[in-house]
């Protein structure tokens, strides 16, 4: 899928760039071609208006000036055609061509020109642009060679093709690099989704297996009353599966709804204090103590229930993974612009390479899947809550303790 997406990205980029280059080069080419044609036609009218016989000396006006420094001389010749009883009489009156008098080539050119329906046009076989003027007693014909004009356009087209090929090759490389950069978030999301489905299936498989096994035992026994132990197993695993499904639904709603929650003024100090009081018995039963130092009147814009859920997740995680006989510490302080909530415990250090993965769904530093390890969704939910509150959460771990630090923007005003 990702490979096809990258290929599609490159194809779209190259198609757009090719279309833009084609439009730009075509516009420039046709503009220059029209300019060259106009200059050639101006020269044609200039030599047609000159009545003197110039032989091979040429006309001072038989030149095209491009810019301030480039002068292009174009071969030309003029002919006066006089009708007579046997057909017509041609008189070459000037030009830069030699040996045109009474030549078969000149006769063919004049016949072709006189039979043209338009007074101005092109004789393609001889690469000449012509102008025909009726002067009453005779017809004035002027010819300008198009070979240089065509050579200029061919050279320009060749240069454009080389430039376009080089530009497309360079842009192809850039597009490939951009495709890797642009699809990296998609690839990461796709990989996380596949991992999410795999881990969710694994987590749901265990309680379902226990439930089905105990249900089959209950159906197969003939004793009355049926063993309560099997029923307790079913209830326990069903509660565990219900908790997992609720956590998955929390993440799914956060993904689908986006930042639609209405945030109001909330005392983060009160929320943290309520959670600390609620978790003191939990810490005591786990053989740990809970210490907290909370700055008063820390106000933020947020959702009280979500902030309470955030604090509960961090405290539950700290108590669960703290070393027996140690203390769990919660601190809330205020800076000039931010509120900082820290939850720390003493336990086994988390390797530095794993810290950035702690907030991924179903990720656990401990690969075991016992009851103590939970589902690996708590910290992912905590990050979702922080994102909704425009805050940030990070983890730090040393040999002494592990800390989760949440920073919130303070309420303004």
UniProtKB/TrEMBL annotation:
Pfam families: HATPase_c, HisKA. It catalyses: ATP + protein L-histidine = ADP + protein N-phospho-L-histidine. InterPro entries: BphY/WalK/GraS-like, HATPase_C_sf, HATPase_dom, His_kinase_dom, HisK_dim/P_dom, HisK_dim/P_sf, Sig_transdc_His_kin-like_C. SUPFAM superfamilies: ATPase domain of HSP90 chaperone/DNA topoisomerase II/histidine kinase (SSF55874), Homodimeric domain of signal transducing histidine kinase (SSF47384). GO terms for biological process: cellular response to phosphate starvation. GO terms for molecular function: phosphoprotein phosphatase activity; phosphorelay sensor kinase activity. GO terms for cellular component: plasma membrane. Residues 199-412 form the Histidine kinase domain. It is found in: Membrane. It is an enzyme of class 2 (transferase). The chain crosses the membrane at residues 6-32, 160-182. Keywords: Kinase, Membrane, Phosphoprotein, Transferase, Transmembrane, Transmembrane helix, Two-component regulatory system. Its EC number is 2.7.13.3. PANTHER family: PHOSPHATE REGULON SENSOR PROTEIN PHOR (PTHR45453). This is histidine kinase. It comes from Pusillibacter faecalis.
């Amino acid at each position: 899928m990702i490979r096809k997406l990258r290929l599609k990205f490159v194809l779209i980029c190259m198609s757009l760039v090719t279309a833009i280059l084609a439009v730009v080069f075509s516009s420039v080419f046709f503009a220059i071609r029209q300019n060259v044609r106009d200059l050639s036609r101006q020269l044609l009218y200039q030599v047609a208006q000159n009545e003197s016989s110039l032989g091979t000396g040429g006309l001072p006006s038989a030149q095209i000036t491009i810019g301030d420094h480039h002068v292009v001389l174009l071969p030309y010749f003029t002919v006066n055609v006089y009708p007579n009883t046997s057909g017509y009489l041609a008189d070459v009156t000037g030009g830069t061509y030699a040996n045109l008098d009474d030549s078969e080539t000149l006769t063919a050119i004049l016949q072709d020109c006189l039979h043209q329906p338009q007074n101005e046009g092109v004789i393609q076989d001889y690469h000449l642009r012509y102008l025909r003027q009726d002067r009453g007693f005779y017809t004035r014909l002027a010819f300008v060679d198009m070979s240089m004009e065509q050579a200029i356009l061919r050279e320009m087209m060749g240069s454009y093709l080389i430039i376009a090929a080089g530009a497309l090759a360079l842009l192809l490389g850039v597009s490939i690099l951009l495709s890797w950069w642009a699809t990296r978030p998609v690839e990461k999301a796709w990989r996380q989704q596949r991992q999410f489905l795999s881990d969710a299936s694994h987590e749901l498989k265990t309680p379902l297996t226990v439930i089905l096994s105990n249900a089959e035992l209950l159906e197969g026994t003939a004793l009355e009353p049926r063993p309560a132990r099997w029923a307790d197993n079913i209830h326990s695993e069903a509660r565990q599966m219900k908790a997992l499904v609720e956590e998955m639904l929390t993440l799914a709603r956060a993904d689908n709804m986006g930042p639609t929650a209405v945030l109001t003024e909330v005392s983060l100090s009160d929320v943290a204090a309520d959670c600390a009081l609620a978790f003191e018995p939990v810490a005591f039963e786990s053989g740990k103590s809970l210490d907290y130092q909370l700055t008063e009147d820390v106000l933020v814009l947020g959702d009280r229930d979500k902030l309470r859920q955030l604090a509960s997740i961090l405290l539950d995680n700290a108590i669960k993974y703290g070393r027996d006989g140690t203390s769990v510490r919660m601190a809330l302080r205020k800076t000039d612009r931010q509120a900082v909530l820290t939850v720390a415990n003493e336990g086994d250090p988390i390797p530095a390479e794993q810290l950035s993965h702690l907030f991924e769904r179903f990720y656990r530093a401990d690969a075991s899947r016992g009851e103590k390890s939970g589902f690996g969704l708590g910290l992912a939910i905590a990050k979702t809550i922080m994102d909704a509150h425009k805050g940030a959460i990070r983890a730090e771990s040393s040999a002494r303790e592990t800390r989760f630090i949440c920073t919130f923007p303070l309420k303004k005003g």
